[in-house]
TrEMBL record:
Gene3D superfamilies: Homeodomain-like. The gene is LOC111276375. Residues 12-61, 62-116 form the HTH myb-type domain. One of its GO terms (molecular function) is DNA binding. The keyword Secreted does not apply. The keyword Nucleotide-binding does not apply. Keywords: DNA-binding, Nucleus, Repeat. Pfam families: Myb_DNA-binding. InterPro entries: Homeodomain-like_sf, Myb_dom, Myb_TF_plants, SANT/Myb. This is Transcription factor MYB82-like.
Length: 235
DNA sequence: AATCGCTTCAACCGCGCCTAC
DNA sequence: AGTAGGCGCGGTTGAAGCGAT
């Protein structure tokens, strides 16, 4: 039932993504959006499973991903939310929309968890805050009360919308700059490494007006406007 | 310079949920 | 109602990087 089609299991590449593969996936999504990961992978010319493509996009290639060091506030948020929610990384990531759940999970497992187990989480924060504040003398230390207030504000705050993450009209995504977030790369065009649409079967028309106005994955029960942004960041 | 051990993090795996048929 | 396909989530793995010896 959960098993993938045999084609996926026998013919698909695994392991680290090459820059060329990144570029193919980005190019395809820029042109057609996200509609069916398994089919998209084939049409984009990728010998990857849909799951692999989705993971690569969500965790690495999508726009506005913040990478690099976590700030003290982010760290406090993660610790507090983990205390409240447990290992529900996607829920925690929802409050840090520029961080991926995988990033948060890794960060927790490799850095915060140790401190949280050894001491309690508050003292872990304090000790790490000292380190961070020594690195960033411009910020002041926060007390537990401040931390609690911050968390309450966070939980009460609305989830960001598209307008909170504006993209320039000339926004072009370059695989080589993925780690640094949004950039404009004049040398990169969407046509690079792209399979001609004439050669592709079109089980549906991703460029149709229907697609543009009716994004998939939107569920009535838990519709979140920020999802629109992540699904269709370029439209 | 070579080796070892530790850390980090990208990627995979398996499972469960949701939806369409 | 049952089944299949697709997606999302959390746990885990393994390669790469880096410092210590």
């Amino acid at each position: 039932m959960v098993r993938q089609p045999s084609w996926d299991r026998t013919c698909l590449k695994k392991g680290t993504w090459s820059p060329d593969e990144d570029q193919k996936l980005i190019t395809y999504i820029m042109r057609h959006g996200i509609w069916n990961w398994n089919e998209m992978a084939k049409y984009a010319g990728l010998s990857r499973s849909g799951k692999s493509c989705r993971l690569r996009w969500v965790n690495y290639l999508r726009p506005n991903i913040k990478r690099g060091n976590f700030t003290r506030e982010e760290e406090e948020t993660i610790v507090q939310l983990q205390k409240m929610l447990g290992n529900r990384w996607s829920a925690i990531a929802a409050k840090l929309p520029q961080r991926t759940d995988n990033d948060i999970k890794n960060y927790w497992n490799t850095r915060l968890k140790k401190g949280a187990v050894e001491n309690n989480s508050a003292s872990a924060i304090a000790s790490r805050s000292e380190i961070n504040s020594s690195l960033d003398a411009g910020e002041e230390n926060s007390s537990d009360a401040d931390s609690s207030m911050f968390l309450n504000n966070l939980l009460d705050s609305p989830i960001p919308t598209l307008e909170d993450f504006p993209l320039p009209a000339t926004y072009i995504f370059s695989p080589s700059d993925c780690n640094r977030g949004a950039v404009v790369d004049d040398n990169y065009t969407m046509e690079d490494n792209f399979i001609s649409s004439e050669k592709q079967p079109q089980p549906m028309s991703p460029n149709s007006q229907l697609w543009l106005h009716d994004p998939i994955y939107v569920r009535d029960s838990d519709y979140d406007p920020v999802d629109d942004f992540w699904v269709n960041p370029f439209f």
